[in-house]
Write a structure and sequence with these properties.
This protein has about 450 residues and is α+β, with helices and mostly antiparallel strands. It has 2 domains: about 100 residues, Rieske Iron-sulfur Protein, CATH 2.102.10.10; about 280 residues, Naphthalene 1,2-dioxygenase Alpha Subunit, Chain A, domain 1 (Alpha-Beta Complex). Helix 2 crosses helix 13 and helix 3 packs across helix 10. The longest helix has 17 residues. Bound molecules: FE2/S2 (inorganic) cluster and fe (iii) ion. The site of fe (iii) ion has 6 residues, from helix 12.
Length: about 450
């Protein structure tokens, strides 16, 4: 379904690969504004890749649905009568009307508000007014069911979908680093996602919002005022000299504070109760021993931020997820999902929501700072001279060693750096340059080893 063969006239493979130079860290500013690049992203990244849809707890029963997007294609994620999760394009096959207008709910079927075509939960067209009278029986309902995602799969209860039948399995797409990132959310036990997704639009390119999650350089400066309120103690979280960056195949990454190997070896010798007790005196929730099964031996040492390429951010301690949905080259819609333990009390859930809304989202102390910088970085990179200057992502370049972890991927133990951002943009150029999955599989970079 993803048409990767229509290349905008000015963006052939060579031109795309030149947009980011991994050897110098120079990034071409046009990637945040060019309409041709944006259209290629929709085709070659969003329609081709696996996109996060929802958590299983959001659609537990037959008929439960949740509306999401694959790029700018709106989709209905719905559980049918057989328990199967379907991802259906939310556009009527008659004249294109959006079928489902609510953000989530429960339905027996989806009836179009324009002329009344009726679709089953698996997308089949089951009702057409005037079939005998106006169409005079000359109509094949079986040909006009809703368009569906090519593949829908889940990992640890997180559902993803791709529009491209040639995509590898979700397991292979995520690789060790992507699976480790999702494992961070599930590491403490069964979780649910609470109703009420916080949504807001920021005037910035989606990639600026994504690369910021690897950016621990800005934390003490941008968020100085948030820090001074006492609501968060960023100095305790930051650990600027104990950073662990993990780089995964196809652009996944995790960046931020890490547990040094020697300290992890000590943690491995103590029980879960003692870890829980120790967590009370740190901003981090030390994970139970079983987390290693979900996150791997390297992943379990990360206390940072995973990004599942292209646009799913998992926050510190796995308590929130955020999708950065593209809304044109110059706008991004942020969707904040709040995660709580399945067995949490009503009071614990209220506290989780309170904490989530105070940190991120439109009223969040941190995101008000971030959103302003992202918006201004997008706007100020747009002028005819400004856009020729390039962005600088050279921090730490050539000063660190990437080692292959026992779990695959690459791990870099370092201080604050821009390794995560460089890997993101290098991978992004490779996704954009490849004309289909076969091309991407053959020509993408493996996570680096040695000096990075
Ligand atoms: Fe949906 Fe006509 S557009 S029934
Ligand atoms: Fe920030």
């Amino acid at each position: 379904m993803a048409d990767g063969n229509q290349v905008h006239a000015s963006w052939d493979r060579e031109a795309i690969l030149s947009l980011f130079d991994p050897a110098s860290g120079r990034l071409d500013r046009r990637i945040y504004d060019d309409e041709g690049i944006y259209q290629l992203e929709l085709q070659r990244i969003f329609a081709r890749g696996w996109n996060f849809m929802c958590h299983e707890s959001q659609i537990p029963n037959s008929g439960d649905y949740f509306i999401n997007y694959i790029g700018e294609d709106q989709v209905i994620v719905v559980r049918d009568g057989e328990g199967q999760v379907n991802v259906l394009l939310n556009t009527c096959r008659h004249r294109g009307n959006a079928l489902c207008r609510a953000e989530q709910g429960n339905a027996k079927s989806f009836v179009c508000s324009y002329h009344g075509w009726n679709y089953a939960l698996n997308g089949d067209l089951i009702g057409v007014p005037g079939l005998k009278t106006y169409y005079r029986g000359d109509f094949d309902k079986s040909q006009l069911g809703l368009a569906k995602a090519a593949k829908v799969e889940s990992h640890l209860g997180f559902y993803f979908a791709t529009l491209d039948p040639a995509a590898p399995s979700l397991h292979d797409f995520l690789g060790d680093v992507g699976r480790s990132g999702l494992g961070m959310v599930a590491a403490y036990g069964d979780v649910i996602v609470l109703d009420g997704i916080q949504k807001n639009v920021i005037d910035c390119n989606w990639k600026i919002a994504v690369d910021n999650l690897f950016d621990w350089y800005h934390v003490m400066y941008s968020h100085a005022s948030a820090n001074s309120t006492g609501f968060v103690d960023l100095a305790k979280i930051l650990q600027p000299d104990n950073q662990l960056v993990m780089l995964g195949e196809y652009g996944h990454g995790i960046g931020g504070p890490g547990i040094p190997e020697a300290m992890q070896a000590q943690l491995d010798m103590i029980g879960d109760e003692q870890r829980a007790e120790m967590s009370k005196s740190t901003p981090f929730r030390l994970r139970p021993a079983s987390a290693k099964d979900l996150m791997g031996a390297t992943g379990v040492r990360s206390l940072g931020h995973p990004n599942i390429f292209p646009n799913l951010w998992i926050t510190l301690n796995g308590m929130q997820l955020c999708l950065r949905l593209p809304r044109g080259a110059g706008a991004t819609e942020l969707w904040w999902f709040t995660v709580v333990p399945k067995d949490s009390s009503p009071e614990q859930r209220r506290n989780a929501v309170r904490s989530a809304t105070h940190l991120f989202g439109p009223a969040g102390l941190l995101e008000q700072d971030d959103g302003e910088n992202w918006s201004q970085s997008t706007r100020a990179s747009r002028g005819v001279v400004s856009r020729s200057l390039g962005h600088n992502l050279q921090m730490g370049l050539g000063h660190d060693q990437a080692i292959a972890g026992p779990d695959g991927g690459a791990a870099i133990a370092t201080c604050i750096s821009e390794h995560g951002q460089r890997w993101l943009y290098q991978s992004w150029t490779e996704w954009l340059a490849a004309k289909d999955w076969a091309d991407l599989k053959a020509n993408h970079s493996a996570p680096p080893q040695g000096t990075v």
